[in-house]
Amino acid sequence: MEIVLKTTLNAPAKNIYKAWLSSEGHTKMTGGEATVSNKVGDDFTAWDGYIQGKNLVLEENKRIVQSWRTSQFLENETDSQIEVHLKEGEGATELTLIHSNVPESGEHYRKGWDEHYFQPMKKYFL
To answer: Are 26 and 36 contacting, i.e. CB atoms less than 8 angstroms apart?
Structure first.
């Protein structure tokens, strides 16, 4: 299953990219404790360890690709993948999130992205 979501944030792409890939920034913009790195191959955790994964591809201020799983994934389920695309426009940035290889039982992640990422990020990047 694949989930595609878009939102617009009142911030330059570089600010969103930097926050997503720093422990302090990620924690502040979502409200959940995160340990994140801005290096390809490094592991990360978010939302107090509920989410974990690895940085796969990083294109500065444009694209972030990470393996992604939660503590709800079954042991035999492979990691899903997220791609975060940042497209800067007039005073704002469009963020497109593509979450692929989501387990069939993972439709609830669509709501989770909005409630636990997009809504807090909109407040953070006012």
So the answer is: yes
**Mutual orientation of helices 13-20 and 23-30 as an angle, nearest 10°?**
100
Task: Report how far apart, in Å, the C-alpha atoms of 2 and of each of 39, 40, 111, 125 are.
Answer: 26, 23, 13, 27
CA–CA separation, 3 vs 123, rounded Å? 23
Closest CA to 93 of 3, 2, 20: 20
Which DSSP helix (H) or strand (E) runs through 28? helix 23-30
Tell me which residue range forms the domain holding 112.
3-124
Look at residue 11 in the predicted model and tell me its pLDDT: 97
Tokens in use for 50?
A: 């509920």
Determine the pLDDT at residue 91. 87
Q: Give me the CATH number covering residue 9.
A: 3.30.530.20
Q: Of 98, 69, 66, 120, which Cα lies nearest the Cα of 1?
A: 98
Single-letter amino acid code for the residue at 37: S
